[in-house]
Structures are given as C-alpha cells and as structure tokens.
Amino acid sequence: MGGAWPEVVILGGGFGGLAAARVLERARVPYLLLDARNHHLFQPLLYQVATGFLEGPAVAYPLRALLRRGRFLLGRVERVDLEGKRLLLEGGDALPYRFLVVATGSLPSDLGVPGVREHALFLKTLGQALRVRYRLLEALEKAARRGRPLDLLVVGGGPTGVELAGALAEFLRYTLPRDFPEVPAGTVTLLEAGPRLLSAFRPALGRYAEGALAQLGVRVRLGAQVAEVGEGWVRLSGGERLKGDLVLWAVGVRGNPLPGLPADARGRVPTDPCLRLVGYPEVYVVGDLNGLGFPQLAPVALQQGRWAARNLLRALREQDPLPFRYRDRGQLAVIGRNRAVAELWGLGVAGLPAWLLWAFVHLRELVGFRNRLLVFLDWAYTYLFREPGVRILPD
Amino acid sequence: MGGAWPEVVILGGGFGGLAAARVLERARVPYLLLDARNHHLFQPLLYQVATGFLEGPAVAYPLRALLRRGRFLLGRVERVDLEGKRLLLEGGDALPYRFLVVATGSLPSDLGVPGVREHALFLKTLGQALRVRYRLLEALEKAARRGRPLDLLVVGGGPTGVELAGALAEFLRYTLPRDFPEVPAGTVTLLEAGPRLLSAFRPALGRYAEGALAQLGVRVRLGAQVAEVGEGWVRLSGGERLKGDLVLWAVGVRGNPLPGLPADARGRVPTDPCLRLVGYPEVYVVGDLNGLGFPQLAPVALQQGRWAARNLLRALREQDPLPFRYRDRGQLAVIGRNRAVAELWGLGVAGLPAWLLWAFVHLRELVGFRNRLLVFLDWAYTYLFREPGVRILPD
Question: Is A219's pLDDT higher than 80?
C-alpha cells in the first residue's frame, strides 16, 4: 500500500457509512472509505430492479463520485485486528486506523431452512437483483417454449416480500400477455409464517395490504412456515408441497460482522449507547450490524452513521460522546401502482396518498441528481405505458 | 416442443434478421425468429457501453417487444439439417422449416495470434462490452491502490478501434482526474498493422482521424503488427514489447456459421446472387455471414435481410428471385466529442459536421423510442457534464 492513509476509516458505503462520511466531509476531517463494492446501493428500490421496472444503475451510485474530500479504496477486509488497530485486507495488505466506523450492514439469512442457499433467490445486492431479473426472464422463455404457466413463490410477508409480490404480479399481469402471449397466466403466492402481513405496521394496514395484493392476483398464505426449499418447489411445515418456478427469499437478515469483531447469534455487534464497540471506544458500529436492538431499516442506519461521526468528531476534540437517540419518522411499504401503506406521526395511511408519499420520499432520498432523473423517467414511462423497460438478458 | 410452429424461420435477431422479420410482418407471413440472446443489439454504439458513456439497455432492445406478429424462441442451434429441412436445437428439440433465413452474423477472430483468446478483450456482444467496462473500472481501482498509471492498448485501426481509442482517451482525460485523483495520467495506444487508419475511407480522412486522436492524447502506431498477447502486455512482430493493463482487440471478425452449413476459411457461406445457399434455394444467408464479398457492415446486413425476405415472398408466390443490389449510402466513424469522419455521396467530410451527421444517423437508426430517448439523455448529460454516468461494478 503506497502513500499516507487517513487516520479515520469507514468500512462500508451503505446508508450508515455514507451518512458518517458526509459529516466528516463537512467537518473537513480526512477519511478513507473502504468497500468491497464500488457503489452505494439504494436498497429500498432493489425489488424494482429485480422486476425490470428500473435499471440497475438507477439505484446504484459510484462511491468515488460521492466522496470529493474523502479517499476511496475498493477492497475486502479479511480481519479486524482490534488490538493492533489495523485492518487486514484480502491480498495481504494491512491498513492502520486511529478511528474506525464499521457499517457493513446485513446479509440474507436462510433461518436454518434446508435448501434455501442452493435454490432460493435473495434480494440484498445489485448482483442478486439482476440475477432475479435474469432468472425470471429465462424461466419465462422456458415456459414459452413448452407453453406452460409460470408459478412464483415469495417467502416473507414483511415490506420486501409485499413489495416484491406486488411488483411480480404487475409484471405477470401487464408484461406477460404482451411479450409472452404463448405463456398461460401463472400465479404469484406470498408465504408468511405469522398470522398477518407487515407485522411491524398496525393490523389494519396489514389487512389493507392483503386485500390490495389479492386484487393484483397474489395468493396470500398466512401461517405458512417453509420447512424446505428444492429446485422448483417449497415444502411447508405441515407437509404440503407447492410448485414454484422461482422461489424468492425475502425473510430474515443477519448482521454482516467481520472476523475479529464480537457478535451475537444474529450477527450483531455489542456497543455502548454511544455506538462504540464495548471495550474499544475508537471503533463505532452502526446500522444493521449494531447490537442495540433498533430495527434494521435505512433510517436507523442513516441516523446512527451520522451520530457515530459526530461522536467521533467530539472524540477528536476530546469531548465526551453522546448516547444515540432514534427519531422514528414512521415507515412505508408499497404494494403496487397507486397502492401503499404508511405509518407516520402515529397515523396509518393507505392507498393513493400513501403511494404518493412513498414515491416522493424515495425520489427525495435517492442519491444523486442523475439517478433521481433516471428513476423519475423510468417511473413515468412505466406508469404511462404499463410496460417495464428492462428485459435484456446479457450474454 | 408443443404446438404448431411457423414454416418460415429466421435465425438471428441482428440487423439482417430483424430487417427480414419486418418485411414478413408487413406481408402478414407468420414466422419464427430464433436467437440465442433475447435482445437485438445496436452494435455500432457498443464501444460507448464499454467506456460507460451509455447504459447497456440503451443499445439493446428486447426482441419479443419488436415482434408483434412473429413468434420468438430463445435457443441455440446445434446443427442445421439441410437435407431434412430442420434445425437441431440445444436440449434435443428439432424444429422443421420450409424456408430459412440465416443471419447469425460474425464473431471476433484472433487472426491466429497467440494469447488473444486468453488475454485480450473483444467487443461484439453486450456481455463483452460490459466486461470491458468492468475490467476497466477494476484496473482503475487497482491502479488507485498502488498509485500507478493505467496504460491501455487498442489493436486495430478500423472504425471500431478508432472509436474505442477516442472514447477511452476521453474517459481517461475527463473522468480519471475527477474520480481517481490518486491515479497518474496513463496512455492509450492504438496499434494498426497497415500504413494508415480507417483504410476503408479515403486517405485524407484517415489522416484527419490520426490528428484528432493525437489531440486527445492517443498514441497512434502504424505498421505495428501484433505477434503475441500476454497478461498485461503485447509483443509486436519486430520483437518490441508494450505494456497494456487492458488489451482491446478490435480487429478481425469471422462469419459465425452453424454446423451443417458450408463455409469458407473466413467462415462465410457461399450463396447465389439472390442470397440463396448454393444447392438449397429454401435457405437464405444474409449479413456478415454471406459469402458474396460485401463489407461486413450494418447497412449491408440490413439491406440483405430485407432483400432475402422479399425473395422469400416471391418464392411463396412462385415468382423468380431477384439478384441482390447494394446501395452504398456511405460510411461514418466517430473519434470523440465533436469529431468524426464521413464518406457520403462521393464526398469526404470531417469534424463537427460529420459528428452531427453521425449522431443524427445513429439516433435515427436506434430501434425503439425508449432507447432513442435514453441515448439522447445520456449523450446530453455526458456532453454537458463531461462525465460518463455508468461506473457501477455489480457484485
């Protein structure tokens, strides 16, 4: 590794890491951002990439273009050497730090269900979202050759599962007859182990989501616990077997800690209330990885990243750190065209107002002018022509 | 294979196959288009995908969306059974035909130079163009880590090589300092075995291209014959070794015939002047694959595809076929922002007028309204901000 490296290192360019970077930029503190990917990913819209409603680059932004004062390094950390205060990188290099912000987020979890890793599709990274899209297009081509219908299974009735099932149902309803007239109408089934959808929202909104999905043709199965996943099928705990040409796994994430960091069974790293790793006050842990028990949502990661960077600035000035306080601004989930649910300021909202709010919030939060423009154009096009634009299988 | 299949089969959805399909659509003759890829590719702009100036889907269009009356099949042909009049598909299916249009285009050729297949990058498919982009971004990240410059080699001084070298030089000049301030300025070298660039154009335009490339910082080496390619280097026939972090092979294509079809040493299939396979008047061969000796250019493929389909319609009406006549509308090559060369109606044009003409012609020819809009927006953005938008490395 040539040259001098900044003393402050941020691991991960997701919502948490980027929020921390921005605080440091404004304070003119030099820092290094290290990520195994070269882009920030706007995960909340990833399901639209998977279903072809958005292009991949519309929800991904090059990290280098975001860091005008910080330095960027593309690389993978093999181990954190907490005692030696350095990161051991893949390839043998070692990177020393004085302060470290760990913001490596979460990974999909198979929840111990056999076959998930081999046969189900996940939706956490850009590559995974593109793989879902390619597998969907390939399955459609195969169905066209044989004149057979396509049956899709989505596992998990949280926001991701609901959004994905809604988008898939719209895809099958509007794109399928136009592009694949030889494929008979298939099914989208949403499997949820619990007694209702969107359990983090109030019950009325879960019921609204159920009704809205049913209107789109999605079969919602509550109390359906998946016991095993195979090639083209899912077995429920009661023994029932369901056919699924694609099985999308939208349930369960676990923290993505690094070797060398302590972690609990769910992969979360214990910190003090000021977001500092217990016993190592120079290491901050934010976002999905943080063990304080906040929900694994983008707003939490964002606020924790900002808070950790502010505490880091306080430490540089030899001030005491402040305990993290979360400002809950509510939550949103979208079901389809004009249909969404929102919980804000103690109110539950459903339907078009929630959808407009959802569209506004997501456009506002998307990083970068260009992406905002692209997403807006893609949406406008899809809305006007009811046709997802991206149906290319690269070779 | 279920159901009844059309009697007319078109192999390949490039310029030639698509032009044939359109003639059949207008004549309301049912047909099947078979391709191993699900998209039509606008190859003339592929070098812009490779350098990140355009998104992949901006130059690719789903074939299904183009064929409203025809039927589409995604699949690979293993062998043409000329005697049995059927196509043997990968996976064991057989597809009978009464008439066949073969338009499978060309593949890159290594011209017998050792190491090309293993170490050089090609630019014929969307996947290859994306690979060039990813390799370029990865090489830049590696160069950033080590603080070393990046040296790029382009082999071939035809239109593709000239366009690619110009786009790479602009990429290094405008994007590099902004996104990779830690990477020292590198070089782009264009190697041409012959005595001048763009040998298919008049000599003055080749000289103009040379000057314009030099202005962009490209080192043009004429009479430089590549004898061997290795990992990170190229050896010339005189023995000289040049360093190249990436080696782009933009020289030589050979026809992409199918087992079962006769072909010459360059992979071209012999046809009569009416574009029919010698001895098999129910088989038409068009585009890069046709052995009549026309240049391997998009306009030739387009005109031959149209012509073959019209002869096919004549055969259906039991009329005699007409010998193919090529209407040469001239040729164009672009070098960079505001710089291009054109040869039209016996005139040679260089500079901004040629560039405007080039932009107009390519926008007009791009298939599909949506792509035209995307390309226009990407260009406008790049032009205004001198910044290619697509710099995402997917995982």
Answer: yes
- For A62-87, how does the pLDDT look when each residue is reduced to its tens digit (9 = 90+)? 898 888 789 999 999 999 999 999 99
CA distance B160 to chain A (A): 20
Q: If pLDDT is split at 50, 70 and 90, which confidence band does B163 have?
A: very high
Q: What is the mean pLDDT of residues A297-323?
A: 96
Q: Which of A83, A90, A163, A240 is catalytic?
A: A163
Amino acid (1-letter code) at residue B77: V
The answer for A 11-30 residues in CB contact with B (under 8 A) is: none
- Residue B24 to residue B31: CA distance in whole angstroms: 7
Which chain B residues are closer than 8 Å to A377 by Cβ? 373, 377
B71 touches chain A (CB under 8 A): yes
* Rounded Cα–Cα distance for residues A75 and A18 (Å): 16
Interface-testing mutation among A376, A384, A393, with chain B (most B C-beta atoms within 10 A): A393
* Whole-complex ipTM: 0.84
More confident residue, A392 or B388: A392
Secondary structure (3-state) at B366? coil
User: Are B1 and A179 a contacting pair at CB < 8 A?
Assistant: no
Beta bridge partners of B88: B79, B94
Asked if A117 contacts A110 with a C-beta cutoff of 8 angstroms, the reply is yes
Q: Is residue B186 within 8 Å of B149, Cβ to Cβ?
A: yes
- B145 interfaces chain A, CB cutoff of 8 Å: yes
| C-beta separation of A168 from A51 below 8 A | yes
C-alpha dihedral sign at B121, B126, B131, B136: positive
Cβ of residue B65 closer than 8 Å to a chain A Cβ: yes
Q: How confident is the model at residue A313 (pLDDT cuts 50, 70, 90)?
A: very high
Type of residue at A128: Q
Ordered by where they begin, the domains of chain B are: 8-108+253-316 (3.50.50.60), 110-251 (3.50.50.60)
Count how many pairs of residues, chain A against chain B, have C-beta atoms within 8 Å. 118
Among the residue ranges A241-255, B62-76, B154-168, B232-246, the one predicted with the least confidence is B62-76
Interface probe, candidates A67, A145, A148, A386, chain B, greatest B C-beta count within 10 A: A145
A372 touches chain B (CB under 8 A): no
Contact B55, B46 (CB under 8 A): no
Higher pLDDT, A336 or B160: B160
**Contact between residue A374 and residue A118 where contact means Cβ atoms under 8 Å apart:** no
- Asked if B368 has any chain A CB less than 8 Å from its own CB, the reply is no
User: Shortest CB distance from A126 goes to which of B73, B93, B395?
Assistant: B395
Average pLDDT of chain B is: 90
The span from the CA of B73 to the CA of B283, in Å, is 19
- Averaged pLDDT, A299-328: 96
pLDDT digit string, tens, across residues A164-211: 999 999 888 887 888 888 899 899 999 999 999 999 899 999 999 999
